[in-house]
Amino acid sequence: MTDPTPPDEVQARLLRRFARLAFAFWSGPTRRKATLLTLGLLACLLLNLGAAIAVNRWNKFFFDALQNKDEHLILISIGLVLALAVISAIASVAQLQVRMRLQLRWREWLTNTLVRRWMEGRRFYQLSILNLVDNPEARISEDGRLSIELFVDFFAGVTNAVLTAVSFVGVLWFIGGSLTLGGVTIPGYLVIAVVLYSVLTSFGMLLLGRPLVARVEQKAAAEADFRYELTRTRENAETIALIGGDEDERGKLETSFGQVALRWAAVIGRQARMMFLSSGNNVLAPVIPLLLGAPKYLAGEMSLGDLMQAAAAFTQVQMALNWLADNSLRLADWFASARRVAALDSSFDRLDAFEKGADGKRIDLAFSDDGALHLIGLSIAQHDGTVMLADAVARIERGEKVLVKGDSGTGKSTLIRALAGLWPWGSGRILRPKDARIAFMPQRPYIPLGSLRHALDYPHDATPPDPERTEQMLAACGLEHCVARLDDEQNWGNVLSGGEQQRFAFARALLKRPDIIIMDEPTSALDELSQSRMMELLRQEVPDAMVIHVAHRPGLERFHDREIHLTRQEGGPAVIDAPAPRFWRTGRRLLAKLGR
Predict the structure, then answer these.
(1) Residues 299, 376: one domain?
(2) Which of 215, 332, 471, 553 is most exposed by smallest CB count within 10 Å?
(3) Is residue 581 part of a domain?
(4) Could you list the residue range(s) of the whole structural domain that residue 569 is in?
(5) Do strands 489-490 and 562-568 pair parallel, antiparallel, or not at all (unpaired)?
(6) Which pLDDT tens digits describe the chain residue by residue (596 residues)?
C-alpha cells in the first residue's frame, strides 16, 4: 500500500524524529557531559570572536600608523599582531579539541543507542527478513557519523556566524557612518550594502542548490548499495569462484557503481553551478567595501585605517550572512544522513508493529513447569499474515530426540525459528522449560573472528570450558588437527571447510552442554559416516538434552526417539503429525541410561 503522505511531509517527519532521537543525548546519564562540552564549545567560539574583533581593530591601528609613517607605532603593531596570533592559535586549538570531543561523545552515544535498538529482540535478524530498511549497518556507522559531525559543525558555524554578524555590523555602522547621494543621506550605508549583497548571493546559492539535497541523498543510497554488493561478493567469494559466477558478479558491480556514477554526476552538475557563483563572490566581496568607502576616503572623511577596518568588517559580515549558502553541499549531506538515521530508527518501531501482526496477534513464548516443551494451538504465519503452519499441538519431553520432516515449503525451518524465539508472527503458545539453556545449530555455523578457543566459547559463559575437555571434544569431532592452533587468530569461517565447520558446531554444543538443542540441517556437509559419528556422540555426551532436529537426509531416524511430520493440507497451510514416542525407542533410551 502506497503511503499517501506528501514527500515533503515525510522528510520533515524524519528530521523531527532525528531531532528527538539525537537530542536525547542532553538528557539522562549523559546530560552532564553533553552540557559541559556544549558550554565549552560556546566559550571557545566567544574567545575566537574576541580575537577576530581584536584583529579588526589592529587593522585600523596599523594602517593609520602606515598612513602617518609613524615607525614607532608600526613596531608596536607588529608586536601586537604576534601576540594576537598566539591568542588566536590557542583559541582555535581549544575550539578544535572541544568540538571534536563533543562530536566523538555524541556519536558514541548515538551509535550505542542505534546498536542497542538494532540488537534488542533480535531485530537485526527480523529486519533482514522484512527488508523494511536497506543497509542498516551503513546507516549506523557512516550516516550516524555524518549526522553528528556535520550537525556539530553547523551548530558551531551558525553560532559563530550570528555572533560575528552582530559584532561586525556595529563596526560597519560606526566606521562607515552615513553617505549622502543627491541630497539624500543614507545612515549606515555599508550595513545596508552588505545585507543586500548577502541576500542576493545567498538567494542565488540557495536557488541553485535547492535540488542538491535530494541528489546527495540519492548518491548516499547508491554508495551504500555498492558497498553492500562488494561485501556480499567478498563473503561468498568461494561459491562464486567455484560456480564460475565471476562475470555475472562483475556485471552486477559495474551496474551498481554505474548508479553511483550517475548520481554523482547529478551532484557534480549542481555543485558546478554553485561554484560559478561562489568563485565570483570570492573575488567581488573584498573589493565592494573598498569601492563603497573610496569616495569618503578621497574626501578625507575616512582614514586609511578606517577604510581597511571597514573592508575587513564588511568581509566578515558578508561571510557570516552567506555561511549557510556557502555550506549548502555539506548541509545536503547532513539532511541525507539525518533522514537515513531517522528512517532506521523508525523501522524499529515499524518492526514492533509488524510483530503484533495485522490482527494484533503474535506467538506467545512462555515457560513450562514440567520440564517439557509444549506447542499449544501454534499457528505460524508470514509477516503479511499468510499462514504456513496451523493449529499445531505437540509435547516434547526432556531428553527426547525428535526428527522433524516435511516437504519443502511446509515451514520446517520457520518452526525452528519460532522455537528459538526468532519468529513472532502467528498465534498460539510455545512453552519452553524454564531456565533451560538452548543451543541453535544452523546449517551454516557462525564462527566469530578471533581464536578457535574464543569461538568454541561463543556465546561466552561466566566460566570458560576446561582446556582438556576442549581438546577432547575437538578430537572426538574429528578436528584433531585444530588442537595445536586453538589460540591462533584467523578468520576461521574461511579457513575451515563446510564439513569442518559443522563438526566444529557439534564440538561447541557438546562443550556448552545445553538443555535444548535446536538443529536445522546441521549435517548437510558431512558424509554418512561422519554424520553417524556426530549424532552418536550427541546421544552419548548430552543424553538428557532435548533435541529438535530438522533434516531430510536418510539414516538419521535411528538416532531419534520419534518423528514429527509437517504435512501440507490441500490448498491450505501445513499441519503437524506428532505421534507419541515409539515404545521400543523409549525403552532403548532407558536401557542406554541404565547401562551408563
Answers:
(1) no
(2) 553
(3) yes
(4) 364-595
(5) unpaired
(6) 445 555 668 888 888 999 999 999 998 899 999 999 999 999 999 999 898 888 888 888 888 888 888 888 888 988 988 998 999 899 999 999 999 999 999 999 999 999 999 988 778 888 877 778 888 888 999 899 999 999 999 999 889 888 888 888 887 888 777 777 766 777 878 888 888 888 888 777 777 766 776 787 788 778 888 888 888 888 787 678 877 888 888 888 898 899 889 888 888 877 787 777 777 777 777 788 888 888 888 878 888 888 888 888 888 888 887 787 777 778 878 888 899 999 999 988 888 777 665 556 788 889 998 889 999 999 888 777 778 888 888 899 999 999 998 887 778 888 888 888 888 888 899 999 988 888 889 888 988 888 999 899 888 877 778 889 999 999 999 999 999 999 998 888 888 998 999 999 999 999 988 999 999 999 999 999 999 999 999 999 999 999 999 988 888 888 999 988 888 776 667 677 666 555 444 444 544 454 44
Q: Identify the H or E element spanning 492.
A: helix 492-495
Q: Which of 356, 379, 396 marks a domain boundary?
A: 356
Strand arrangement of the beta sheet that strand 401-406 belongs to = 364-368, 426-433, 373-381, 387-396, 574-577, 562-568, 401-406, 546-550, 516-520, 438-441
Whole-number Å distance between alpha carbons of 180 and 127 = 69
Assign residue 192 the CATH number of its domain. 1.20.1560.10
